[in-house]
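Let us begin with a simple case.
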Amino acid sequence: MKIAVFSTKPYDRHALEQANREHCHELTFFESRLTPATAALARGFDAICPFVNDDLSEPVIDLLADAGVRLLTLRSAGYNHVDLRAAARRGLTVAHVPAYSPHAVAEHAMGMILTLNRKFHRAYARVREGNFALEGLLGFDIYQKTMGVVGTGQIGAAFCQIALGFGCRVLAYDLYPNPALQAAGVEYADLDAVLSRTDIIALHVPLTPQTRHMIDAESIARMKPGVMLINTSRGALVDTPAVIAGLKSGQIGALGLDVYEEEADLFFEDLSSTVIQDDVFARLLTFPNVLVTGHQGFFTKEALERIAGTTLTNATAYLTGSDQIQKVPLERIQFEE
């Protein structure tokens, strides 16, 4: 199968080429993001392999379908960047990687909590300048604090286990409580209780119309003053201007973001020699109690290997008609002809 890989970085190419030894697809790598302007590059390919910030809106889906593309094999778990209605209408199959390494993201989330709490990032810079003073580096014991976990899918469940290991009380919200987590000591409550009764809140839910801006001015007002908020899921879960207002008022005591609503023009690129034009993002970076990483949570050796392996397995399964393909269920989407 001829596959066009968009938004390719050297680590993507290495992982996919290693995995392709088993599958023997014809891979062509493009550094460009998939956009309406670059969709023509897909002409002559059976499938495309996009990443999270590629544009798979209706106009791009139409261009891909007209170019002969039949399969979108995403190298991500989330598919909120795909117009599924348009894909269904054009008869495209969409496959994804539902579970590449939940531990990678969960561990990154806990790393952000530890860094924000004990100010590792600030201490590192100080010591390199010969400043060994401790003023401004005061943290708190995470032990016996109440950890709020919103979403207990595979990543959220892994995070719960880490939090329990730190001796936290874990209060979680999910539409479908996990009996194994309950047996391990996780308590489930409604979303309002999780937001209002916890010291640290970690978001581990997909982006849907229902979860978009679930953290807004109203929900922030219900949180404990000085709460720590961590988002390693999708940027649009958080209303960024509302969070900035919460930081300014002190309602939010610390913020960790591995994702950002307008990250597509920022993350995964070296912009160190340019002026960032996003004023909201630039404002975030002025706060000493904000830690931003560039969608790094997934980035482990094990995760890259599994993403590449599942992505190409999906392509092979599509080609052979195997039920191993991890399809997004487009048949459930209702649309008008």
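The second case is a distinct protein. As before, the sequence precedes its structure tokens.
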Amino acid sequence: MLEIFFKNKGQVATTGEISSLDQLGYDDVLWIDLWSPTGEEKRAIESYLNTTIQSRAQAEEIESSSRYSENETTIFANTNFLIPGPDSYSMEAVSFMLCEGIIVTIRNVPLRSFTDIQRKLMANYRLMPTGYHILIGILENRIDLDADMIELMSKEVAQYSKTVSLGGTVGEEFLLDITQLQENTMLVRENIVDKQRMISSIMRSDKFPRDILAKLNILMRDVNSLINHTNFSFERLEYLQNTVIGLINLEQNKLMRIFTYVSLLFMPPTLIASIYGMNVDLPIFGGIFDFLVLVLVMLVSVFLASFLFKKKKRKI
């Protein structure tokens, strides 16, 4: 599927027909959005712009030279867009290609940033008169959405911290939730760093119009601020995780102390019962009171052991 945005009598019109490119010049077309494109659509765009579209494998490369590159006529930029899910986040590779002032985007999922910028472009394309401006607009929108996600994650961290501070129930499930939030925080940070690298490459390029330099500087400051914020959130989660593990260990130690105390109390009676369970003559006269005497000796040994442990604990 593709959608072509082009200028038409002072407005922006759209079409999904490949054949319409035959009637459109480079000065008319602003944006070609390829959404899960077919081979025919890719070949048509390559023929129209006289260039080559990167494959999905190339878009997912992590090397710096693969994330952003230029030649005499074309700029290639690849980045990841974070897709929030009910429990975890996922990364979606998005490719940008700038040629003759036209931006070509290749993606495989619906993205809110694209929808928002397309709506703004249709309302007033003079705010984004070239593909370069459209690219910066997409990045601005995407970074705003990332900032919203980071803010929501910060609220979640604060809620978990409050639960621990108020003595709420913490256990394995609570610890797993914190671990998942840590994973999401790392993904968000990775996504923001990827944007930082892309913006840095754009700022070093001499192909972009100078009037967008101020926006790029603002974007870079925003990105640096978001990176610092994610670092703080991750450190806070790590501290919270250590606190929860410490509380769980304390609870386990309390249980172990109880079990140890009970075991030690019953060691003397067990020893006595073992001795008088031996099949030999023992130093108690045979009679009907033998069992009562043994029970009494066992109880005395339990109370004596308990007294000695408490006395020692007071000294410590």
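The longest helix spans residues 213-265. The chain has a mean pLDDT of 80.
Keep these points in mind for the review questions at the end of the chapter.
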